[in-house]
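Key result, reporting period 2: structure in, sequence out.
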């Protein structure tokens, strides 16, 4: 009888633990409103953001291709960014093709890990400011997308010009897509 009640309590605890993990599944470790100067911004990014940054970092190192374009290519595949394209009347297929063209035309250049880490820090810093400006709890894929656009990289600027996309339009589309 003792073991039976022990296992019953153990099952309840395991269930509560799993339920809590499920509730906070795609969230960062900390909420952006707790952000203070000098804090590590990695605690505020969501797992999908981490995966996207990690993917672009590793692929850029392995293939010597442009980190920003690789990141933009990966972000453009996410559901919420596809919704932004829809709201801006931009063909996501054409957008992806344009990124692929830029990546294929890109001259392979050796990227130093330290330079890429600084690039990630810059992107996440800008994304944190953008996220706070629209009262986000975490740094999300949409914030990274806007941050990349705001960094004014020449290759990305050409893509934006090709589709007549303005950063302000993307920010507005994201706000509307967020509350869809």
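The corresponding designed sequence is given below.
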């Amino acid at each position: 009888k003792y073991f039976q009640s022990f296992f019953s309590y153990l099952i309840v605890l395991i269930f509560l633990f799993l339920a809590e993990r499920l509730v906070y599944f795609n969230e960062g470790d900390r909420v952006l409103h707790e952000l203070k100067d000098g804090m590590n911004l990695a605690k505020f990014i969501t797992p999908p953001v981490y995966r996207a940054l990690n993917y672009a970092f590793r692929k850029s190192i392995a293939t010597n291709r442009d980190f920003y374009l690789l990141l933009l290519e990966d972000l453009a595949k996410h559901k919420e960014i596809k919704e932004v394209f829809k709201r801006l009347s931009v063909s996501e297929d054409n957008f992806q093709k344009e990124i692929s063209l830029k990546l294929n035309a890109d001259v392979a250049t050796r990227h130093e890990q330290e330079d890429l880490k600084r690039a990630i820090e810059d992107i996440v810093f800008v994304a944190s400011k953008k996220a706070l400006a629209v009262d986000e709890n975490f740094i999300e894929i949409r914030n990274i997308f806007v941050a990349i656009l705001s960094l004014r990289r020449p290759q990305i600027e050409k893509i934006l010009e090709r589709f007549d996309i303005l950063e302000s339009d993307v920010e507005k589309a994201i706000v509307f897509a967020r509350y869809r």
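The mean pLDDT is 84. Residues 2-23 form the longest helix (22 residues). This case is discussed further under Risks and Mitigation.
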